[in-house]
Amino acid sequence: MFVAVVVAVPLAFGFAPSQAQAVDNLNKLAKMVPGVKKAKLKASVQYLAKRRHTSYRKELKAVISSINKEVAYNKKRRRIAGAMSAGGFTVQEYSVPARTAKWAGDIFVSTLGSQSGGVNFGHTGLYYRQASILHAPGAGKKAQIQPSRSVQVGVGTVYMTTVLSIQKQYVVADYAKATYEGQNYNYMYYTNKFRDGTTVHVPMTPGIPVNLNPAKRANCSELVWGSYKNKAGIDLDGYTAGNGDYFAVFPWDIERSGLTSSYVP
Fold first, then answer.
1. Is residue 64 over pLDDT 90?
2. Which sign, positive or negative, has the C-alpha torsion 154, 159, 162, 163?
3. Given this model, what pLDDT does residue 8 score?
4. 108 and 124 in contact (C-beta within 8 Å)?
5. C-alpha dihedral (147, 153, 158, 164), degrees to nearest 10
6. What is the pTM of this model?
7. Beta partners for 95?
8. Residue 195 to residues 72, 128, 209, 217, 219: CA-CA distances in angstroms?
9. Per DSSP, what are the bridge partners of residue 124?
């Protein structure tokens, strides 16, 4: 009598396909968010999944997708601006000094981002005064005020004002300086809409505090968005519908807002 014996062969590293994909995606996110340990990244995504009543794996994919979407949109803006410019230049690294704004509190969004972790979804800053910019330049740098002429921006940069009065924009600019100047860079850009200092504990990762938005740290879009949200009570995030970026504001989201309008300085 012949008896067929089926032997289960374990997958490489003992992971099921879905588990292996989750590990791969976590590695991808770690490259996009340098400066944060994988365990904390994983815990943060687990918390977001809990908040949105979805699974960790789905939320992880959604976060990565939202970041890639912003990178692609930034490339599109740069490509269109290059094609429309005099001479039709398409050089990706093309940059010029930022222009002088009309009023304090005005905003710029540039296609020339810091490219931290190989990710370039643009850059934004707030004019402290007409010829000086307060911004978070990127990884390893503190938020600072610089003369606009010393801040390099990319092709397709947009200059904007808000629906607020000039006087209120001045108030926001002063608040931004008092609040954000000198802060270290916040790597947790995909959760930058949480209140500053928000730390939670996730049951799946006991003992690992999740710093969703570390206190005394800011990235570029958080600085601009937070200044207007906290001081003037208006939300400049023009895109909150997508999965994976509900708790994040990216530079071009501010340009998409119905509360900002562009102009030629």
1. yes
2. negative
3. 43
4. yes
5. -30
6. 0.87
7. 154
8. 28, 23, 16, 12, 14
9. 109
Amino acid symbol at 135: H
The span from the CA of 205 to the CA of 224, in Å, is: 32
Give the residue carrying structure tokens 């062969």. 9
CA distance 159 to 93: 19
Residue 117 backbone class (left: φ over 0; alpha: ψ -120 to 50; beta: rest)? left
Whether 42 contacts 205, CB under 8 Å? yes
Tokens 């809990």: give the residue.
50
Listed residue (87, 94, 162, 151) closest to 124, CA to CA:
151
Give the Å distances, CA to CA, from 224 to 119, 123, 159, 176, 231. 20, 11, 13, 8, 11
Beta bridge pairs of residue 126: 107, 134
Q: Which of 105, 83, 261, 258 has its CA nearest to residue 156?
A: 83
Cα–Cα distance measured from residue 34 to residue 74, given in angstroms and rounded to the nearest whole number: 20
Q: N- to C-terminal Cα distance for the chain?
A: 89
Taking the C-alpha atoms of residue 27 and residue 21, their distance in angstroms, rounded to an integer, is 10
The predicted-structure confidence for 23-58, as pLDDT tens digits, reads as follows 999 999 999 998 899 999 999 999 999 998 999 999
Q: How many CB atoms lie within 10 A of CB 85?
A: 13
Q: Please report where in the chains the tokens 């008092």 appear, as a residue.
A: 178
Which pLDDT tens digit goes with each residue over 87-140? Answer: 444 444 478 899 999 999 999 999 988 666 678 999 999 999 999 999 999 888
